[in-house]
């Protein structure tokens, strides 16, 4: 009987120390220009502008057990205005592993053009963008304890237009268990 109590206490201690749920960290690794179309329709006095960005991001599971997450979405914002959104399909990340993801974001370019700062940013060669991603899922410890985890990442990034690379990246991470 004493051995059983010891094992139960040990499992509870491990569940709340070693196996304590940790924040899955979402990192934007690169942003590259995948497609750029610009067309001026003089008959209708319209400017048609379409941009697609390839966004490589990674989700690091620093938990000692797997992390299973639901369908989510990543947002791309320009000066507070949503200019793109891409779904992130549900999945599972093993313990202490990183899952790379390549997402293609079709940008609502008309929203860029409507911002008075856009042309100044383009002529300066730097485009300030914000990414926002919220992923919710579960951490299952020994099939005894299930924790619901919500990880939120928001990053301010600078895209250098000359070489389509990501420069400065400042991210804030939040999570709830």
Automatic annotation (TrEMBL):
Residues 57-150 form the Late embryogenesis abundant protein LEA-2 subgroup domain. InterPro entries: Lea14-like_2, LEA_2. Residues 1-15 form the signal peptide. The keyword Signal applies. Keywords: Signal. It holds the Pfam family LEA_2. It comes from the Eukaryota. This is Late embryogenesis abundant protein LEA-2 subgroup domain-containing protein. It comes from Gossypium klotzschianum.
